[in-house]
């Protein structure tokens, strides 16, 4: 539901931007109710250009975002591998530290019996 609301909000913001931009660029006369042919043509061209630019930007964004996601994934995997290697190294160090203690413990228990 939250995703749908965000999409509606984004669409309305885009619509408001187009309306504001094209109105300010194309409408010259506020004394009549109807638009002139020139104003209609200008508004049509304005909306068409804005839409085309927006579509191109979205295509570039999608392509760049895919590259960014791939880079982030590679960085994440490298970080995970590093953490795993550090964890294995710590486990090996712990195992090495425990090994001499068990050897000395077994030596001390065997000595009194002899």
UniProtKB/TrEMBL annotation:
Q: Where is this region: Disordered?
A: 92-114
Q: Which UniProt keywords apply?
A: Chaperone, Disulfide bond, Membrane, Metal-binding, Mitochondrion, Mitochondrion inner membrane, Protein transport, Translocation, Transport, Zinc
Taken from the UniProt entry, a GO cellular component term is: mitochondrial inner membrane
Molecular function (GO) terms listed?
A: metal ion binding
The superkingdom listed in its UniProt entry is Eukaryota
Q: Which Gene3D superfamilies match?
A: Mitochondrial import inner membrane translocase subunit tim13 like domains
UniProt membrane topology term: Peripheral membrane protein
Q: Any keyword Mitochondrion?
A: yes
Question: Where found, per UniProt?
Answer: Mitochondrion inner membrane
Instruction: Answer whether the UniProt record assigns the keyword Cell membrane to this protein.
Output: no
Stretches assigned to the Tim10-like domain: 6-61
What the entry says about domains is: The twin CX3C motif contains 4 conserved Cys residues that form 2 disulfide bonds in the mitochondrial intermembrane space.
Its family? Belongs to the small Tim family.
Q: Give the record's subunit note.
A: Heterohexamer.
Q: What does this protein do?
A: Mitochondrial intermembrane chaperone that participates in the import and insertion of some multi-pass transmembrane proteins into the mitochondrial inner membrane. Also required for the transfer of beta-barrel precursors from the TOM complex to the sorting and assembly machinery (SAM complex) of the outer membrane. Acts as a chaperone-like protein that protects the hydrophobic precursors from aggregation and guide them through the mitochondrial intermembrane space.
Please state what the protein is called: Mitochondrial import inner membrane translocase subunit
Organism encoding this protein: Anopheles sinensis (Mosquito)
């Amino acid at each position: 539901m939250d995703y749908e609301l965000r999409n509606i909000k984004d669409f309305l913001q885009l619509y408001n931007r187009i309306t504001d931009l094209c109105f300010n660029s194309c409408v010259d006369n506020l004394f009549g109710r109807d638009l002139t042919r020139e104003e209609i043509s200008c508004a049509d061209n304005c909306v068409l250009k804005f839409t085309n630019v927006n579509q191109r930007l979205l295509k570039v964004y999608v392509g760049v975002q895919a590259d960014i996601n791939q880079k982030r994934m590679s960085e994440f995997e490298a970080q995970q591998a590093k953490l795993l290697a550090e964890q294995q190294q710590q486990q090996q160090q712990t195992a090495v530290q425990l090994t001499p203690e068990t050897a000395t413990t077994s030596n001390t228990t065997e000595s009194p019996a002899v």
